[in-house]
Amino acid sequence: MIGYGNSMFLATHGILARTASGGGVDPDAQAFITAAAITDPTQQTAVNQLVLDLKSFGLFTLPNLVVYPMVGGTNTSTSFNLVNPALYQITWNGGVVSSNNGVQFNGVNAYGNTGFNPTTVGTGQNSFHLSFYSRTNSNGTEIEIGGQDATGAIGSLIEIRTSGTTYYRINSAGSYITHADANSLGFYISNRTASNVVNGWKNGVKLATGTTVSSGNFNGDIWIGAWNNLNGAAKYYSTKQSAAVTMGAGLTDTQAANLRTAIQTFNTTLGRQV
Amino acid sequence: MIQVGLLTEIQKDELVGQLYDDDSYFNPIQDLNDNWVISVEEMEQCVNPDYLWVKDLDLIPYEPKPTPPPFE
User: Fold this and answer.
1) Same domain, yes or no, for A45 and A161?
2) ipTM for the whole complex
3) Is the domain of A160 the same as that of A229?
4) Among A24, A46, A79, A171, who pairs with A2 as Cys (CB 3.0-4.6 Å)?
5) The whole model's pTM is what?
6) Mutate to test the interface with B, among A68, A103, A108 (most CBs of B within 10 A)
7) Which helix (H) or strand (E) holds A174?
8) Do A92 and B62 touch (CB under 8 A)?
9) In 3D, which of A83, A18, A14, A81 has the Cα closest to residue A55?
């Protein structure tokens, strides 16, 4: 057995010729495919290419990188981290529905706890990003990913399109960078690369910049599909369908654009790009 | 109109911390009138034999608690 758990697939889809080493399926892709029990050949191919693309861009080794490809169509398969399936497996709560198009949040009580606590992980307050690929066009008060401490002094989020505006915040008090947003479709990144450098990206374009000073490192688990608001108040449950989520160290402009390219290629292979 | 399944207080206590499928937990919440409810997705996807009774819950319109905008 060389890869994917299906040698017939390898023989008919030319996987051996496409790998960077020429030695079979990328081992990191294989580890994810095995953990998530991905059996669909197109999904296997897409996962392998995503790993190869992230490696070719030098992103796979980004400090503390976590990638949720949201692939496989079940709440189990969509819970795994591509970079290391043994770390930060999502715990789903409430009405989460996984399909081949990703993970649908219900806007009532659905969210995923990544178990990724930036303080515990040691990300540092001045270098961090969150991303969320939205396949849903909506315009309500919803937060797609992030968390905030009990006092509101430290928080991170992406809030995609509330009343026509998208909001970004990384490791700061309640100050946001924003841009007008005609729809809530695509790949969004909330990013900090220095104590006073924050930016927000949509579909590979930097649309918001700011100098909000970081206030500390969020000490709680990052949630997907809602906001881990540690003061016990509103969670702002999302109604969106996600087709990928990432988090990790802050991204240079080139890295942010390349991350979008890799994720968009992945979703295009799966026929679920927006 | 979103609908949700209506729980008693006892039923809510039974569901907290329990799985409805292999990797997904029930998440009872309170609506505007302080009713405990779960989503229809949890009811439909439940395969845990201990909690199949959720499929028979009465459905009521979901009235969320008002939430202040987070951007103030």
Assistant:
1) no
2) 0.96
3) yes
4) A24
5) 0.93
6) A108
7) none
8) no
9) A83
